[in-house]
Amino acid sequence: MPRTQNRSDLDTSRAKITARSSLYSDFHLDFTPHPNTGDITTLFDINSIKQSVKNLILTNKGERPFNPRLGSNVRGLLFEPADPFTALDIKEAIKETINNYEPRVKLLDVTVKDNSDANRYRVEIEFQILTTLETGDVSFYLERIR
Is 101 helix (H, G, I), strand (E, B) or coil? Predict the structure, then answer.
């Protein structure tokens, strides 16, 4: 039997309105427990988005079940010669991936520097969160695994 609404259900004078303290949250991927609670460590807002951007770049297309187009083919480009042309291809792949699969951010700049001596690339991604207009950056090395 459906529940009927009482007058007390409509009384909004006692309603408490609170603002959320964070917009985005995600768990930390190293699964280290929190020192006090023992729960999995949680990332919030800018740190959550940084982790998401990095995961998108490091995910190969076809790697995610039920979403085969998600990710980039950056890892495949790591086996090309380490030169400025490959760095440009990696930069374009990163731009395409973030613009297509991360709707929470506006991409500001992507820098890919090749380090041919170490056979790796330094990637720096600068973005702006659309909801808070806060800017953030992610930097990491891309190198092939032998």
Answer: helix
